[in-house]
């Protein structure tokens, strides 16, 4: 029996190395479908995608639900192997490059040189999602940069590394809750919060059932379409009057579905960003 609960986090992962031709839009579709199948993290490279899932969640037939693998428009092959988390982190460091959003914000790892921008965010994601590289995180960071967070109460739902919550703290948010259902993301976000001196961010492990009667000025939810559709009613209930919901994790052709659910719950569409068919949108009540 393990006496230290964190030891269990150092588990064995399955790495699936996908070779893809052509890369787009196949890579984005593949990542979305793998995420719904239970894969936790991805590294994009010039040949395709490295996808990671805990060995305990792996099944020999898990890829049968990934429809794009049967799409004859794309040439896709893959190899499967076990990998220790420590080795994954080494692989991540060799593939992780800092990003910069115009002249205002940068997201980098601890081993990168400090960026000369107003908001310099240091993230060590390990097995968590949220480095700013993926289109959805990048656009959510853009929306945060363009909005006033001074003195606001904020919820970051599906927080991953905590990068979105950290930027809202740097922009002056007064009360911030970050929630993720994955234990590793929960632990990683707590590390990144401390790393960026944002100790007033409260990090929780769980899902939307944790919210209870809490009210927020702004809710951020970068998850996926199915979870968003399921939870938008909860987010709307937990928004203050004149509150704002920023959502991402879905494609442009999903906007009608997301907007219909928002309208049902008293939210109005105001704007969206789009990048490589991914969308981030703003709704208000």
UniProtKB/TrEMBL annotation:
It holds the Pfam family PrmA. Its main location: cytoplasm. Transmembrane segments: none annotated. GO terms for molecular function: protein methyltransferase activity. GO terms for cellular component: cytoplasm; ribosome. S-adenosyl-L-methionine binds at residues 137, 158, 180, 222. Its EC number is 2.1.1.-. It is found in: Cytoplasm. CDD domains: AdoMet_MTases. Keywords: Cytoplasm, Methyltransferase, Ribonucleoprotein, Ribosomal protein, S-adenosyl-L-methionine, Transferase. Methylates ribosomal protein L11. This is Ribosomal protein L11 methyltransferase. It comes from Pricia antarctica. The gene is prmA.
